[in-house]
């Protein structure tokens, strides 16, 4: 497959040997994930199992939303928005995204900045709007209060009845405040799969509904996810996970470096995936996003000469959608050369400089900015993350530490 | 001063005692910076020394640019764009920013993504455009090739003569490729102060020209920077620097957490300032940007339960420009409460949760999103960073590690 993700390791022979020694455990971890008897593994093989009637319902609803609004505001935090945002930034090929007549997707409720939300309301208030609230419980503060502010806007704009008809929800099938409100108010809802955690949920209604509303070819995205279940791609994930598990014992920080701004939001999604899955029990490496070339002129100094606490995962698009060939009377030696060639030179220059100071490097080559490639990339990363966690001996699907700040926050508000 | 930055420490008594022990050395470091006999300290006291004729020239030129274009593209990398971008995102008070009739400022040349630059060209091509190229030498690859692509657009659009009249440059007074080109082509230029490094340059023509073009009140910004030279504010910076120098010996990572998206780009500027100044000789803590509440639902798990490698600097706006009070029939207990109160609750909840696992916390309270507050904040951070570096025994003004990737990149292109 020429159009599949490839991973190249420059980590030194010793780390690859140690990783190869984990092979049997990586095989067992993969089998355990696929056995279906572990909690929160609903994302495993989900794309292949997605019922046609659910997919059709998502598409129909997304088309209805697209016909009704200029702005589609998705309210959610963490896994409820990072995946959709990643895909919207990543997918830019015309054969993967038909944006004519589709709304702009905006996000709310991932902070409680009055400035952010006041500016958002100011932007959308004179055009048609639909809302999507994504929350398992409906109780989390940030999306709850953003939802209240946006519902108020819609009620004032459209009157209560039409306002309620413009609200869509993804929530628990049976329980919680948002389920009760949805039933009372007649929101069109999709079920948040109970066995899929937020950070593994982009390939589920959580990601698919807003992406289809924005015009992304979600069937291609699903086909990409399915393609990542070939034996070859699963082997790719097992090896990536094994190398990461070895490096977790030697390093403190994993930098995820992107060479194209279209990958910046995917990087943010990756930080949640890996940070929340592996950072527990005093374990894990801190995942940090790095924008290239920008950060070579800022943090690059630290990477090169500061404390050697890193390994780095480089995310490189092999065939970008757009390229520019340099010309003009001042172009000199650059005449006829292209931005994609320069970007490759940045990759090679950075890798050479970092090899010289023994930073272990993992290069992830992503074929193109298509929906198919995005689906494949997401599934490879999810599988890699889950296997790494199992190899480390942590539960890659819980997040007990997230509750601590929520409790402190509610204590403060009750005072 | 009620409108000044305040810093509150929750680091434990021992760290504060150790920091107090550095007082004499912090005093000496400050004196050394102000003595004027150290290289690259041109930023020290710069705002107070800025000649009125230079300031007037910047304002006149910025007004001319504003009258001539809808899009003003600033081409630069690292310190040549992060500071201006930080101010543009931060300053949102109407009394600090008059945007009517001013161009949108866009940035280019901080990566070599063909997709990014093709999309940028597509956005601006049908409207009036001016360019600002900021480079000491004119030789750095990324801004050079972005400049070539944008010059080509302007030449095709306006013809050679008018195209050249729409190009402005900030570069070395005497030397380099860009100086020669500017002289040959008659670009209006400003001098890049030779004793100010990129990451300390936002309060210089580098930041002031694009900010004034965008309508920012740069005289208020300069007044803010001058206000940071009061004895009280310099003491604030000395203590901040001393605490950071102590923590550098105990921790691996400093997270800079922002509670309002308006502070996100300031955070990115801070990462360059601290990472490039302190990360050398195998020293320094890695500065990492964290968006709140977003990252409490992603990396928050790691902060709480992963490896305890952090201390955190919280950047909180005390009086945000916009607020929203919650109301509506579903608002329940939240009725009548405001987003700014919720954001404060997030701060307190996070601090409580992190204190419980002994993460040292430094709270930086920023009075408001004004140009004055921005100038003050920048100068406090620059002084803090320089003093921290001197306390650590590293040179806070060089960046030898940045050259390594550039060399590798040019080697690759020559092949």
SSE layout and pairings?
The structure is a homodimer of 415-residue chains.
Chain A lengths: L5 E5 L2 H8 L2 H13 L10 H4 L2 H17 L2 E5 L6 H9 L13 E5 L5 H11 L4 E6 L6 H18 L1 H6 L1 E5 L5 H9 L2 E4 L13 H9 L4 H10 L3 H18 L4 E6 L5 H15 L7 E6 L8 H6 L4 E8 L21 H17 L5 E6 L4 H22 L9 H13 L1
Parallel strand pairs in A: 2-3, 2-4, 4-5, 5-6, 7-8, 7-9, 9-10
Antiparallel strand pairs in A: 1-10
Overview of this structure, please?
The structure is a homodimer of 415-residue chains. Chain A has 415 residues and is of the alpha/beta class. Chain A has two domains: 206 residues, Rossmann fold, CATH 3.40.50; 174 residues, 3-Layer(aba) Sandwich (Rossmann fold). Chain A is built from 17 helices and ten strands. In chain A, the strands form two sheets. Chain A has a five-stranded mixed β-sheet, sandwiched between helices. In chain A, strands 3-2-4-5-6 form a five-stranded parallel β-sheet, with helices on both faces. In chain A, α9 links the parallel β5 and β6. In chain A, α5 runs antiparallel to α13, α11 packs across α16 and α12 packs across α16. The relative contact order of chain A is 0.17. At the A-B interface, α6, α7, α13, β8 and α14 of A face α6, α7, α13, β8 and α14 of B.
Q: What is the percentage of strand-forming residues of chain A?
A: 5-15%
Query: Given the C-alpha coordinates, what overall shape of chain A results?
Result: globular
In order across it, which strands form the biggest sheet of chain A?
Answer: 1-10-9-7-8
What would CATH call the homologous superfamily of the largest domain in chain A? Glucose-6-phosphate isomerase like protein, domain 1
For this structure, the quaternary state is: homodimer
Mean pLDDT of chain A: 96
Helix content of chain A: 40-55%
Determine and state the CATH class of the largest domain in chain A: Alpha Beta
The name of the CATH topology of the largest domain in chain A is: Rossmann fold
Number of helices of chain A: 17
**Low-confidence region ranges of chain A:** none
SSE sequence of chain A, one letter per element: EHHHHEHEHEHHEHEHHHEHEHEHEHH
Radius of gyration of chain A: 22 Å
- At CATH level 2, the architecture of the largest domain in chain A is 3-Layer(aba) Sandwich
The largest sheet of chain A is:
5 strands, mixed
Q: List how many beta strands of chain A DSSP finds.
A: 10
Q: Biggest interface in this structure?
A: A-B, 114 and 114 residues
